[in-house]
Amino acid sequence: MIDELDALTEKMTLLSSQLRQLRDENQHLRTQLASANVELDALRGRIAGAMQRIDSLLEKLPAEAAETVPPQGP
User: Fold this and answer.
1) SS3 62
2) Gap between the Cα atoms of 51 and 40, Å rounded
3) How far apart are CA 57 and CA 49, in angstroms?
4) pLDDT digit string, tens, across residues 29-38
5) Which residues lie closer than 8 Å to 15 by C-beta, 6 or more apart?
6) What pTM, to 2 d.p., does this model score?
7) Cβ(66)–Cβ(58) under 8 Å?
8) Band of the pLDDT at 62, cuts 50, 70, 90?
9) CA atoms of 24 and 28, how far apart (whole Å)
10) How many helices (H) and strands (E) does the chain have?
């Protein structure tokens, strides 16, 4: 009976340790995800700004030059 309790105690200690590790890893991953989302938002903003500048430049092109620009496709 004592051996069984000792084995159970050892398993519970191991389980508790693994739980702490997983919680720590989960928190670290959440922090990384939040940072990645902030970076993604910043990059999206930069892309939107670049697209606006390109559109502005395209509007300034003479009509003839705009017609000779080949369409861009996938």
Assistant:
1) coil
2) 16
3) 12
4) 999 999 999 9
5) none
6) 0.64
7) yes
8) confident
9) 6
10) 2, 0
